[in-house]
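#lab-general

N.A. 3:47 PM
ok so I finally got the sequence cleaned up, no stray characters, all 160 residues accounted for. can someone with queue access submit it? mine expired

B.Y. 3:52 PM
send it over

N.A. 3:53 PM
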Amino acid sequence: MDGVGHGGVVRASSARLTPGVAMTGTEIVQRSADAWNNRDRDAYLACYAEDCEFTTPHSTGKGPAAVIAFWEMQMTAFPDNRVRVAALFDSGDLVAEEASFEGTQTGPGVNPDGTGFPPSGRSVTTMFAALHTVEGNVITRTAFYWDDMTFAAQLGLLPG
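B.Y. 4:20 PM
back already:
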């Protein structure tokens, strides 16, 4: 379903940034997912403010360096990955995202402690959630949440 549903829910969107045209927070976040899936790093980075806060379960950083580090880590380990947005909900400048990450680990991965692990060749599908703050057509803060144990089990990283 394209467009905005009841209660500010967006399932998919073909919205593109047009200079001088205000976009909703859900359109901006959907644009970031589209850029991710299109492997357009510059467009993904353009979704974020220069001084954005970017948080994952493993790192917290600021600005383009944090966004690029996350991009590089995920695209290296899972070059075929896709993000599938299930729903986006907005309230003012806050956007909640429910989505899944799917991919095959054909590149080296990084553990939460920073140590690496070799490619497993295994596929993963895991749900994640994110909270984004959007101001002035850019994301100023993102916090991602996912279940590392499910992720690690699918990659064969857990004993047993």
